[in-house]
Design goal:
Length: 138
Amino acid sequence: MSLEYKINAPVSVDQFIELLNESTLGERRPVDDRECIAGMLVNGNLMVSAWIGEQLIGVARSMTDFHYACYLSDLAVHRSYQRKGVGKKLQSLTQAQLGPRCKLILVAAPAANAYYEHLGFTNNPRCWVLNRDQQISS
């Protein structure tokens, strides 16, 4: 079967969890919290997916205003299809949905830094994270 890419195609919670687990991204995502995963799918506003038949083999899930900034929250490719250009194509198709001034922004796992640099991303060390259980200091 051939590989097909889709823009904003429906993805079920089970399909997404299976892909996260098969891509190693499941180690850093709440795959045991179906309600959270469902919210991630419903509230992202740009998702490019890769399919072989009915099997989801890749996804680039983003939050964007389409004009200035696009946060690529999840880039997952099934282990069996990694190093075959699927992730690169998902990112390229994501970027193609954005306006001409829109930046593609992501937070990479440490092991993936060289991958993104190779694609032309610029490293920016100014990312900050505030977990929900923490309070903003006065």
